[in-house]
From TrEMBL:
Its EC number is 2.3.-.-. PROSITE patterns: GNAT. Residues 18-177 form the N-acetyltransferase domain. It comes from Salinimicrobium gaetbulicola. This is GNAT family N-acetyltransferase. Signal peptide: none annotated.
Length: 180
C-alpha cells in the first residue's frame, strides 16, 4: 500500500483559497525546502533535514505516526489557484507540553498574504469541531512577534513563559478553549 492510499482515510480541509491535507512522504522536497528557510531555522530549529529523502523520512518518522495515532498531525497547505505548496499548519502532540499544540510555517514568499491565518483558523476550528479537543495550545519564541500576533488574532491568549524538558530556551505559551 503506498503512502497516498494509506493517508486518504484522514481528513483534509478546504478554505476559500487553500487545500489543507495531511502531509505525505511525497511532500519530501517541499518539507526539505520549508525546514531550511531562515525563519524556520531561527524560530523552530534545525531538524537535520538536508535533502528531499531526509524530508520524506521526516514525514514518515515524525508526522505520520501521530496522524495514525490521533487522526491529526501536520498538514500541507496548498494554494488552490495553482496547486503550489505554500506552507504547513497542524496540531501536534508535543512531548513536554500538556495538550495539543497548533503550529504553522510558510515559505517566505507566501508570508503576509493572510494564508497563515486562513489555514490556522481552519485547523483551529477542526480541532474543536472535528477532533473534539476542548483546548489548544501554542508555543513561540519571545522574539517571534509575527507568530504572537497571529496566535492572538486566532483567539489564543498568553498564559505563561515555559521551558520544555531538556531545553534551555524560554517559550511563550498561549492557549484557547473551545468555549472561547
Amino acid at each position: 500500500m503506498d503512502g497516498n492510499n494509506k493517508l486518504e482515510k484522514f481528513r483534509s480541509f478546504e478554505t476559500e483559497r487553500l487545500l489543507i491535507r495531511p502531509t505525505q512522504p511525497e511532500d519530501g522536497e517541499f518539507i526539505y525546502q520549508l525546514l531550511n528557510t531562515p525563519k524556520w531555522l531561527k524560530n523552530i530549529g534545525n531538524r537535520k533535514v538536508y535533502s528531499e529523502e531526509d524530508g520524506r523520512k521526516y514525514v514518515l518518522n515524525k508526522m505520520t505516526p501521530q496522524l495514525e495515532r490521533l487522526g491529526f498531525s501536520n498538514y500541507t497547505v496548498i494554494r488552490k489557484k495553482d496547486g503550489v505548496k505554500i506552507g504547513t499548519c497542524g496540531l501536534y502532540d508535543r512531548e513536554g507540553l500538556e495538550g495539543v499544540d497548533i503550529g504553522f510555517a510558510f515559505l517566505p514568499e507566501f508570508e503576509k498574504k493572510g494564508y497563515a491565518f486562513e489555514a490556522s483558523s481552519c485547523i483551529k476550528n477542526a480541532a474543536f469541531e472535528e477532533f473534539d479537543l476542548s483546548k489548544i495550545n501554542a508555543i513561540t519564541l519571545k522574539e517571534n512577534l509575527d507568530s504572537q500576533k497571529l496566535l492572538e488574532r486566532l483567539g489564543l491568549s498568553f498564559q505563561e513563559v515555559i521551558t520544555l524538558p531538556g531545553e534551555s530556551e524560554e517559550l511563550m505559551l498561549y492557549s484557547v478553549s473551545r468555549e472561547n
